[in-house]
Amino acid sequence: MSEAFPRRWMTRQFASGHGLYLLLDSRQQEIRRLLLQTSDFEHYRILYKDTPAAELADNGPFVFALERYDDKRIAPLLARPEDNWGWLFSLPQASLPVWVEHWQQRLIIGTRPHQALYRFHDNRVLSRTLAYLPTEDMPAYLGPTLSVCYWQGTRWESSDNPAPGRYPLPASPLWLQTPAPAEQTREIRQLNAHRYLLAEHEQAYADLARTQPPEAWLRERLEQADEWGWQTPQQLEFLLIHSLRMPAHGIDAQWQVRPGETSLEHFERVSHWVKTMGGEATE
Q1: Which of 58, 157, 169, 261 is deepest in the core (most CB within 10 A)?
Q2: Model's pTM, two decimal places?
Q3: DSSP H/E element including 3
Q4: Count: domains in the chain
């Protein structure tokens, strides 16, 4: 991959007197080690430090100041943008603490007990969000950031913040409504289902794993839910629990969709049949 685009962007930002920074994903262990060894303490930040996600700090993103537009330390990253290692950005001089505070305020999304970490450091998240947000909503998202340079998936891109500054966190951030790709949605749903079964039905899930790969089994169950149109948490939970009780026998004929039956009618009929037959899942 050509480094020309990000290097030109870095040159312009540096020539304008802006501070240059790298936001780095924790998976880039080798580069992170090099940057930590060659950076003064005031030239990097651990983004999850002093936040509710502090226990994950070492596995979270780091931000590093780049003192030169031609910094050779990041050449391996620029040569492999498809690794999705993070993104580059510029700030007014001495504005890093404000930038860190801005993103830490946006780190936790959702309400208890359904909170999650917002992966703002992922260039794929940044790319989708900037493509989705109207221009007038970009400042509240980017905060003090002057400009960003990132891998869009097929090419390098850069975006300038139309009004850099301090912004409070909106009550309903528009960027959290950014549509997620179907593949990512499936991955997240499978991960959530996996965590649910581990937390609530650990023994039955462990027994299943002795006879077949749980990831493949779970993927098949979720594909079945898609086919039937069972998408609510109650429907998915019902299907997973009862499938877990009969992994070797498969779905009973009573579970199959009947002609002209809607997804809701199908679910209500099957759940009633299970209760009638004494098939309620109990542990």
Answers
A1: 157
A2: 0.67
A3: none
A4: 2
